[in-house]
Amino acid sequence: MPNNQPPIPNPPRAITTKDILYIKDALSWELLTFKKFHFMANQIQNPQFKEALNKAGQMHQNHYQRLLTHLQVDNNTALANLPNTQQQQQQ
Amino acid sequence: MSNQQSQNSNQIANPQTGELPKVKTPDMNDRDFLNDALSTCKYLTDSLNIAVREASHEQLFTDVLQILTETHQSCRELYNLMFQHGWYKLEAEEQQKLDQAFKQFNNYSSQFPY
User: Fold this and answer.
1) What residues in B contact A49, CB-CB < 8 Å?
2) What is the reported pTM?
3) Residue A73 needs a FRET pair 20 to 30 A away by CA distance; which of B25, B70, B100, B111 works?
4) DSSP for residue B110
C-alpha cells in the first residue's frame, strides 16, 4: 500500500473473494432447503403443516433471489469509484 | 429435542393431537417431517449468522442480516406449530430456584461499573 493513498471511508460495494464464497454457500443452502420443504409439503398429511412448510419454502426461494442479486454487481465500477485509484506509480 | 416426561404440575404442554399413525413404522410421519424442517432451519440460522459476520460491505451485511432475521422468525413459526400439536413439553422451574437465581445475580450489582 502506498502511504500517499487517500483514505477509503467505507468498504466499497465490491464483492470480495470471501463474500462470493459465502454467497455461493448460502445460495446452495437455500436451494436445498426450499426443494426439501416443497417435497415435504407434498408428503405430509395434515393441511395445516402443508401450508406452513410451503410458506417457509417460498420464503427460502425468495431469499435465494435476494442473495442472487449480490452476484449481479460490477466490481470494476465499484473499484473505479474508490478515491484516486488511478494507477499511482510510487516514486 | 428431548421430550422428558416429568410427572409434576409444572409441565406446560398441549395434549398430543392424534394425527400420527397409530402404528409406528419406518416411514417418515408428519412429526418426523416437521422435526426435519426445524433442524434444517436451525442449521440455516447458524450458517447465515457466520455469513453476516463476514460480509464485507454494508449492503451485503444488511441484506444477509434481514434474511437471517426472517429465517429465525420462520423457525419460530415451525416451533409454535409443533408446540400447538403437543410435540413440545416444557417444564416450569421451581419458584424457589428462580428466586434464588435472581437474588444471586441481583447481588452482583455491587460489581457494576456504570
Assistant:
1) 30, 33-34, 81
2) 0.87
3) B70
4) G
What does residue B91 show for φ and ψ, rounded to 5 degrees? -130, 125
pLDDT digits (tens, 9 = 90+) for B3-26: 444 456 799 999 887 677 788 899
Residue B34: which residues within 8 A CB-CB, separation 6 or more? A44, A49, A53, B78, B81, B82, B87
Chain B interface, best mutation among A49, A65, A72, A77, by max B CB count within 10 A = A49
C-alpha dist (Å) from residue B14 to A77, A91, B3: 57, 76, 13
d(CA B92, CA B75): 22
Longest CA pairwise span in chain A (Å)? 74
